[in-house]
Design goal:
With 328 residues, this protein is mainly alpha-helical. The protein has 8 helices and 3 strands, in the order αααααααββαβ. α1 runs antiparallel to α4, α2 runs antiparallel to α5 and α3 packs parallel to α5.
């Protein structure tokens, strides 16, 4: 089974589970008339919409590059995450409003034992499926699957808190435990919706993924060869699971075009082997200048005018700048 097929099957699993659990939670609300249970059920409705959109985004992301999408369709996974975060944020705002009104005007809660049993069962299912989606999403580099799985984590937590509120109401007779729990859950859901929106915007705006950039630079440093005099202006963009990497590599100016091409090919291949996803890498070759002699590792350089002093170790701070390195 290909990674794309695995993603789509997991997305379908999430959608089917979400539909089934929404039905169970609304039945629990019918039995209890609990504000906390209603909060849980409303949040789960969002699961259905977001799981459906995530499934569609996974289908789009699996499509090959074409004339209109030369970098592929992977960015749609970030859009899916933003859609999910936006719906969760709006649900959290509505839940806060509804819970505040219920806290001011509490009403009795009925059959809490059935409510606890039903919600506890949904929490177990959500937690199991959420763990599965997050682990698979991280392995397959899918932000849509990870986002969907984290949403199920949230859903499981809301079910646990709602169950706890029902237990407290049954044990103490204090109805405001129910609406108080709904207030807490509403705030928690609101914050998590905002965080998902933030991650979505970061991906769509190509915010630097420091971890990936660090890995790329560390691999170049570990495999460094003498002709690779200096690297700068290194950038990494993520398109779904795939990576687009480009940088400038300074090489001896007297190298033939064939020699330069051979070095660039080796750089691209070693980076592609480092990552378990599709990598598109473009390296721009810059001719060296005499200012680079003091950091150049070419022991047999025929045109050196300055003695070698020491190597500049590439890292995330100096390799991403759009300027050649030199020693002062």
């Amino acid at each position: 089974m290909t990674p794309s097929q695995t993603k789509r099957r997991l997305g379908l699993l999430s959608l089917v589970v979400s539909v089934g659990l929404v039905a169970i939670k609304f039945y629990a609300y019918h039995l209890t008339r609990s504000q906390a249970v209603l909060t849980d059920a409303l949040e789960s409705i969002i699961n259905v919409f977001t799981s459906g959109f995530a499934l569609y985004s996974l289908h789009l992301a699996s499509l090959p590059k074409d004339e209109n999408h030369p970098y592929g369709h992977g960015k749609v996974e970030n859009l899916s995450l933003g859609f999910e975060g936006g719906l969760i944020f709006m649900a959290g705002a509505f839940i806060l409003f509804s819970a505040a009104r219920s806290f001011l005007h509490p009403h009795p809660v009925g059959q809490p034992d059935w409510g606890v049993a039903l919600l506890a069962s949904t929490a177990v299912v959500n937690l199991a499926v959420g763990v599965l989606l997050v682990r698979a999403g991280k392995r397959l580099k899918s932000v849509a699957l990870v986002g969907d799985g984290q949403h199920l984590y949230i859903d499981a937590l809301t079910s646990i808190v709602s169950s706890g509120a029902l237990v407290l109401v049954a044990a103490t007779g204090v109805v405001r435990f129910d609406s108080g729990a709904a207030l807490l859950l509403g705030g928690f859901i609101l914050v998590n919706g905002w965080r998902m929106l933030r991650r979505s915007v970061s991906g769509l705006m190509d915010e630097t993924d420091t971890a990936i950039v660090t890995e790329v630079i560390a691999e170049l440093q570990a495999q460094r060869r003498a002709p690779w005099i200096d690297v700068h202006n290194l950038r990494v963009q993520r398109y779904g699971a795939n990576l687009h990497i480009d940088c400038h590599m300074q090489m001896p100016y007297y190298f033939t075009l064939e020699e330069v091409h051979s070095q660039l090919f080796d750089i691209e291949e070693l980076i592609k082997e480092r990552f378990a996803v599709d990598v598109e890498m473009f390296v721009h070759a810059d001719p060296c200048t005499f200012a680079a002699c003091s950091l150049c590792l070419m022991a047999d350089c025929p045109v050196r005018v300055h003695p070698f002093r020491h190597e500049v170790v590439w890292n995330v701070h100096n390799a991403v700048k759009n300027e050649r390195h030199h020693l002062t």
